[in-house]
Amino acid sequence: MNLDPRIPDGPLEEKWRIWKDNHELVGPRRRGDHVIAVVGTGLAGASAAATLAGMGYNVEAFCFQDSARRAHSIAAQGGINATKDYSNDGDSVHRLFADTLKGGDFRAREANTWRLAELSTEIIDQAVAQGVPFNREYGGLLATRSFGGVLVERTFYVRGQTGQQLLLGAYGALSNQIREGRVKMNTRHELLDIVVCDGRARGVVARDLVTGETRAHPADAVVLATGGYSNVYFLSTNAMGCNVTAAWRAYKRGAGFANPCFTQIHPTCIPQTKEHQAKLTLMSESLRNDGRVWVPRDKDESRPPNEIPDEERYYFLEERYPRYGNLVPRDVASRAAKHVCDEGLGVGPTGRAVYMDFRDAIAQRGEREIEARYGNLFELYEQITGDSPWRVPMQIYPAPHYAMGGLWVDYELMTTIPGLFSIGESNFSDHGANRLGASAMMQCLADGYFVLPHTVTDYFARLEQPHFDPDHPAYAETEAAVEERLARLLGVKGSTPTRDFHRELGRVMIDACGVARSAEGLTGALEEIPAIRERFWSEVCVAGDSRELNQSLEYAGRVADFLELGELMCRDALIRDESCGCHLREEHQTEDGEPIRDDDRFAHVAAYEYQGPDAEPIRHTEQLEFNELHPKARSYR
Amino acid sequence: MNFTLRVWRQEAADAPGGFETYEVSEISEDESFLEMFDGLNDRLTVEGQRPVAFDHDCREGICGSCSMTINGRPHGPGTGTTTCQIYMRQFEDGTTITVEPFNARAFPVIRDLIVDRSALDRIQQAGGYTGVNAGPKPEPNSNPVSPEDAEQAIDAAICIGCGACVAACPNGAAMLFTGAKISHLGHLPQGQPGRYTRVQDMVEQMDSEGFGGCTNFGECEAACPKEISIRVIGRLNRDYLVGVLYHPRNPRGAMKPQ
Q1: Residue A503's domain spans which residues?
Q2: What pTM was computed for the model?
């Protein structure tokens, strides 16, 4: 497996311009000869599909939801970063780059991160032109706020539903192209395999979730924009349908899977309260602008939170990290919350929660301003918990949220399978070992609007045979492989529902590969997961048939893939014998729980190559080079 | 808590449907309505019966997937909420709960509680966008938008496209949905070019999909999980009228070949 990142030569700040100046073009009249399959219609997929179609390519787009607008990007709350420096903080491309690279604990590529920072401003311009109704200041200019891990205000937002509005902007552009006839939209379709013809990705096999028909959809190139895999933990902030299947099929067809153990546990979610809970709900990081996080100093505190005086409250983020306070990066905040709960200071019925308190902010800024900033988040919290954040502090606890790991891609966002691209959360590229808040939407849209359309064009222009061969035997073979797998799932005919296996896997994963990891825990998990998988394949109960609408079958297929991914994650976490970003190995931390990186041994990307069902995957590495910023210990104190 | 569920079951669009009754017991009051359905479905699966098909995804009330009519109300009891944000504590212990799909002529049933809402997508495709491709754009702060206008645009733009407004309307009208998009773009400078073409195109599509007309029942506003105001319909009507009268879609006229 060749992990050449193909970064153009030249100074860091010139690389993307140099690449664009030198890339090959496809003339406007030739673009209509090409078909591109785009899988997923979140921010990355919708923006890519709309842009490619707008350039003149034919796009076949897929989503498993009943409408492209429902992809889980819709639930992103807080905002999107851009280096406009409207607030005159002294912000710059260099600062966003540096914050992102440092936030990712020096485990991302400098060139990718720089390009992301550079494109950030164009995204805002694009979104505004689409009619995205960003919040405005008095006077009508765009409003910004601050997010974790930074000391400037560069986050643009639409109340607490920025993702919804950005996605509806991209969905509008996509709708426009559907009307123009350039995009064929396949809703209620799930990708179940990638078709590889003579070493190149030339289409996908998708199942029509209404009729149950599985069929190959040939294409000249394939783009996966299929999101992250946090649902491997069973309980996460992801939507119920989020899955790893597309990326996992690609992995099994030869795409490298990079840094699978880098998963973000978001600090501010509504804590789990009951056994049969189906998911966890995020409370936007933007709340940490005004919410103060604390626990009682006394383990045996029994008074309600509002009666506890200030001097008996432990504002642990403010005390431990005076410079960034409540706005430390997510991994730091999550570890700190777990730490105080492990010490017995946690609150709530389970003792696994901390307070996030708006009392002081409401007093200082007034109810009106807080309502304008967080009104809908307060409502959401009250609906779920029955408590009003206007009167009592919120209770929050970390929950799996985002996957920094994913398909390995080069500078052109292409995986190790030529012609197979991966964008947005489904690739591994820009966030290193920890993603900063408000950077996910930025990356999705940078990839979809501004990077991928050019790199796909360059790919076509350089190919001797740019078109797929409809008679290639790989189409029928891949269809048959998919059918066979569905038949296997239906053929088990056991008596245990899929959810039980998923829940069990989630418990193993969150304990062994969650906020804190250790060699002992991971070794144990590597024994447990194959055992769960084995039982799944002999005891799972799937209802119905494959030629009908069958949600039971859909779910079983997704969990079967999670049962394999979980093992790879634990393997990766075990081999990465250092702490970095989200990945805290208990063996490598300072006395007060700060991670200790090992740049001599692990300043690299680890990408895994599939070797067959019973063989260990091969671990390849891509060495990371730092020329602009010298890696140093991350400090937010 | 224990409940009796009367659930609409229907194999396919062209198959006859009917209510089936299920008893569910030992339900925690903190359980969400859909978690209760997850439990029921696991039980049915293990018992060898076909589980109840229903749409759901984010379970945070923002994706717009869930679409049940509970005890006669789209998205069930409470105001300003989706089905996925309903909790069992909102029901009285021991009662019977009736669950149907969203009921409208333009939303054919696919199976059980799943309906086909693609008509809403097609209304959007008819014109619900500003029509700009990716590429260099003007500096946004060169075109200020008053916070009041931005707020009104957001108030309409937060529509999640769930279709509860259609299901609640005795006429099965999609005026709140369509009006929300018209109102969102109409409040912003970027939405001005094409404003009157957009409204005519979208209304034409809406009519062709078999949605009914608005006769001011106001049920849509009451059912809307995002509490979008019926004012957006007034705005749609105004723009439509102005459009038809002063901004016809083919201002230069055309002569049909004889």
Answers
A1: 477-613
A2: 0.97
